[in-house]
Write a structure and sequence with these properties.
By secondary structure, the chain is α+β, with helices and mostly antiparallel strands. The protein is built from 19 helices and 21 strands. It has four domains: about 15-225, Heat Shock Protein 90, CATH 3.30.565.10; about 230-370, Ribosomal Protein S5, domain 2 (2-Layer Sandwich), CATH 3.30.230.80; about 400-485, Rossmann fold; about 495-540 and about 560-625, Four Helix Bundle (Hemerythrin (Met), subunit A) (Up-down Bundle). A hairpin with a 2-residue loop joins β17 (about 470) and β18 (about 475). Residues about 105-110, about 120-130, about 330-335 and about 490-500 have low confidence and may be disordered.
């Protein structure tokens, strides 16, 4: 509101349209938890106290600079009233109009749109406070509300705002010598419970126990909240339930977190932190925290509610609080990210999160599996993007293996299980775990009893571009780096060369394949890397590696897919019997086409698998005579 705008006093002023619609919803809808109004008014008071504390760090020329920062709640059962008073920053007449007489259009409309979507499974009270409409929730229990406020500005006069929740409000001159705001609610007849001290204490315990200012209830001014910041307590003084309660109060997450870590350090900077790994990264409609980032405090003063400069992007799912004594209190929100201390805090917090996950994987593998199933991509993103922490992050990865596809293995587990003759860590890339288990690329590895990691996540190729070795062992793709298959035993007087190498007849089969397939393949050759399959497709030498090909496809980048080389197994019965077929036999062509398309299918390259049905039926007819 402009400073030159005349503020009408002692006469009704109409609410804006969105505010009237909002009040109508709040007053006339049915609620299962009307108590939420007290949570909202206490939160508003806490915000006003924080602003006062922040202001007085640099300016002591305010009303009541020595006044205790607190919240006082008193109820009068006979008069049917409830009063919430704070010693916060207070409001001028202009601020009362801006904050209570109007509401930000975006906030009102967002709330109204959300309210339209609420169904029987959800509570409207759960979304109050998410769109800047918390104060109005008091009209759920109020016949009328009187707000008296005195700004911390010494030149400002006290003023009252009065409304019964209908279409208008009135501003009046008021008497108030102390800084802060006092809200007096004339309770509805059916809201008598909120004039009872014991009920008010219950609500504070449930919703506002960790408000960082004392909340006094009743004429005796007994403190009703714990107030102490959980993250500043010694870990041994906080039990497991308190950790979960704080997390759920902060996030409104109905599930307990997978794990948490509580840290306090004096070097290289002084800081406290309480960090949580949520059971799920998904935010529901009712989640309190709508953005990524941690709560950043400087000496218990909230600097940023969603600070994204304390953790790398791939750890954006972490929730919690960081509080530092070394962060300047007068640092502006805009300059936080460029402050020298922030870099040190980020390093400490990041290392702590990674160490916590390592410990979880070591001490509670079953719980860690839950983490991995949900956050695997975040870890892989970190390996691909954070060179400084990639070595530590690699210790967090888990994969199924070809011989044990139901069990998770770390790279450390894999190395400990390697054969003496094995010199590399082998993996297979694919789109689906079940299909890669049938890949012909695995046959030689099975016969050598070499374990192979299964990588089917779209982010695996990105990760592999940066993960080349682990403990001096090279990571190798089975499609490009396979050991020779063991030779078949032969009779003493047999021709070993005839049994194990491409004979003249098999070489003729190779030429037939080349003629039949033409430019669909770059070449056809024999291989000693196959055992049970008649053929496989591989990339030619010098081609873009399989990892990069997948990356290019995912990024929709233009690249020339290399023509495949078809390798055939000279020991396979199909290949050997093909050699005995006449070159002009119709069956010869059918079999070669089927062998080739089988290889396409297993590689996930077949453009139209259904087109094979006709050929397969013809082959069955031939087989049946």
């Amino acid at each position: 509101m402009s400073a030159n705008t005349q503020i009408p006093m002692n006469e009704p002023v109409a609410f804006k349209a969105e505010t009237r619609q909002l009040l109508n919803i709040l007053i006339h809808s049915l609620y299962t938890e009307r108590e939420v109004f007290l949570r909202e008014l206490i939160s508003n008071a806490s915000d006003a106290l924080t602003r006062a504390s922040y202001t007085m760090l640099t300016n002591h020329d305010v009303v009541d600079p020595a006044a205790e920062l607190g919240i006082w709640i008193t109820a009068d059962a006979e008069k049917h009233t409830l009063t919430i008073r704070d010693s916060g920053i207070g409001m001028t007449a202009e601020e009362l109009v801006d904050n209570l007489g109007t509401i930000a259009h975006s906030g009102a409309r967002a709330f109204l749109a959300a309210a339209d979507k609420v169904d029987g499974d959800h509570k409207l009270s759960d979304i109050i406070g998410q769109f800047g409409v918390g104060f109005y929730s008091a009209f759920m229990v109020a016949d009328s509300i009187r707000v008296v406020s005195r700004s911390a500005n010494k030149d400002a006069q006290a003023v009252a705002w009065v409304s019964n929740g209908n279409d208008t409000y009135t501003l009046e001159a008021a008497e108030k010598n102390e800084r802060g705001t006092e809200i007096t609610i004339q309770l509805k007849d059916d809201a008598e419970e909120f004039s009872q001290d014991y009920r008010l204490r219950q609500i504070i315990k449930k919703h506002s126990d960790y408000i960082p200012y004392p909340i006094y209830v009743g004429e005796k001014n007994e403190q009703a909240n714990k107030q102490a910041a959980v993250w500043r307590q010694q870990p041994r003084q906080v039990d497991a339930k308190d950790y979960v309660d704080f997390y759920q109060q902060m996030t409104l997450d109905s599930e307990a977190p997978l794990t948490h870590t509580h840290m306090a350090t004096d070097a290289p900077v002084q800081m406290y932190a309480l960090l949580y790994i949520p059971a799920s990264p998904e935010r529901t409609f009712f989640s309190l925290r709508k953005q990524d980032g941690l709560n950043l405090y400087a000496r218990k003063v909230l600097i940023q509610e969603y600070c994204t400069d304390l953790l790398p992007e791939y750890l954006r799912f972490v929730q919690g609080v960081v509080d530092s004594e070394d962060l300047p209190l007068n640092v502006s929100r805009e300059s936080v990210s460029s402050n020298r201390v922030m870099g040190q805090l980020k390093k400490l917090v990041t290392n702590k999160v990674i160490d916590t996950l390592k410990t979880l994987g070591k001490d509670k593998p079953e719980e860690y599996e839950k983490f991995w199933k949900v956050y695997a991509r975040a870890v892989k993103e970190g390996i691909a993007s954070d060179a400084e922490n990639s070595d530590a992050l690699v210790q967090l990865v888990r994969y199924h293996t070809v011989s044990q596809p139901q069990k998770w293995f770390s790279l450390e587990d894999y190395v400990l299980g390697m054969k003496e003759s094995q010199k590399k860590i082998y993996y297979i890339l694919g789109d689906d775990e079940r299909s890669v288990l049938h890949s012909p690329h695995l046959e030689a590895f099975r016969h050598h009893d070499y374990e192979v990691l299964i990588m089917t996540d779209p982010l695996d190729p990105f990760m592999l571009m940066h993960l080349r070795t682990f403990k001096d062992f090279e990571l190798a793709n089975v499609a490009a780096d396979a050991p020779a298959a063991p030779e078949k035993p032969t009779e003493e007087n047999g021709d070993a060369k005839h049994e194990t190498q491409a004979s003249g007849e098999v070489l003729e089969v190779v030429e037939r394949f080349k003629h039949q397939l033409g430019d669909r393949v770059k070449d056809v050759r024999t291989t000693d890397r196959l055992v049970e399959s008649p053929a496989r497709l591989v990339d030619p030498e010098g081609a873009l590696n399989p990892e990069m090909q997948r990356v290019y496809r995912m990024l929709n980048k233009e690249y020339e897919a290399p023509q495949k080389v078809m390798e055939i197994n000279p020991q396979h019965p199909i290949i050997q019997r093909l050699a005995n077929l006449a070159a002009d036999s119709a069956l010869n062509e059918l079999i070669m086409e089927q062998v080739y398309e089988d290889a396409l299918l297993i590689e996930g390259l077949h453009p139209d698998p259904a087109s094979m049905i006709g050929r397969i039926q013809k082959l069955m007819e031939k087989a049946l005579g």
